[in-house]
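Q: Aspartate aminotransferase family protein, please. Structure only.
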Amino acid sequence: MDPVLSADLDRLPELLQAARDFAVQEVSGLDSRPVARLGKTPAPDPLPDGGAGAEGALARFADRWAPGFSGSAGPRYLGFVTGGATPASLTGDWLTSAYDQNVSGAAGSFASALEHETLGWLRELFGLGEEHHGAFVSGATVSNTVGLAVAREWLGERRGVSVTDDGVGALGPVDVLSGSPHSSVTKALSVLGLGRGSLRRVPVLPGNREAVDVERLDAALGALDGRPAVVVANAGTVNTVDFDDLRAVAALRERHDFWLHVDAAFGGFAALSPEYSSLVAGLDEADSVCVDLHKWLNVPYDAAVQFTRRQDLQVRVFHNASPYLGLPGGDPDFLHLTPENSRRLRALPAWFSLAAYGREGHREIVERNVALARRLGERIARAPGLRLLAPVRLNVVCFTLADDPTERRVQALADAVAASGEAFVTPTCYDGTHGLRAAFSNWRTSEADTDRVFAAVERHCAEPRL
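A: Structure for Aspartate aminotransferase family protein:
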């Protein structure tokens, strides 16, 4: 054994304690450190010939790289849709690395059984029935890809061909209909060989909405003359957190033949609150569902889940036919359900957080985040230099400059807020107007944090250079 590696093994408790102390320092300082880092990054160093050991590597990281990491796990990072890591999920994540379980199969470990238990808890949390079977994946993009891969196989079943055996070319033209699809959907269509051009955008409701017009969707499906299709419904759009009427969309299957995939990456968490659960009424009627966990469940990256009613088709797509792995049976191993064979035990951080805080603890996070989004929205609506681009429907505030909201000026505002170190928001374009998004999904965010975010935005929107 390499002498440096051997020495690290002998001192493993001390090394883990040093890492623990450093991590505590970093996490404890999230409230005070700059939310974003915009400085010049260090130039890459050459690979060292001789190692410095774990202690030397930690010192080198702390000196060279750690100062440039963002405060994305903190309370005022409102870009994209970014959660943090609850104390319990962080604990579970550390143990995930310590145990280093490969959850490809169930042999020789309780790890797969724990993952099944966690999936059952999540299924219950989102109001899905036992007909839905799930698996952990890396994020919403892969979750959408898996769901649409199963939909692709369903199309083959309906047309009397086997996509898994004969390829996507056997399908012929494919129609994928959606009102406001996330960009990961078109990426998935490209990866799956269906093509970005197979997506047909259906008009949305009038009046500053992103939800699909169900009557127009009905007409679009009717124009297919009975040809089976895929419908991607949205439970929480990125810009304004608008929700398709899932029950009304699902009811169209009484007249039309289509697979219903629901992208509920973060909007699915509305199910946790009695006040907002009506937004996802009908989610259980979907054929496949995408939910991202490193968003509103506040577990570390990377973690998401996918659910489907047709696990038999999922196995047909993803099964790994190898003598040493065995063929999938009635309870297939996870390697037969997703693109990955080997992967880490992503379920453990989620299990820890759900076990630690339960339904009520996570409901409180969701409801507090929504209340804070509305607080920010109300202040922006009253600010002379700002205006809302859409109502605050759940946890995202979409807003812009009151005057001359060009792409350059809006980006300059985003850059100025980030450079202040007070907050981080991301630019967007909604209904032809450039704007900014503030997405609340972090368990730490408070009223005081929200007020600091508003103060930073208001202060910099008045700068002459914008």
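A: Brief note, in case it's useful. The CA atoms of residues 256 and 314 lie 23 Å apart.
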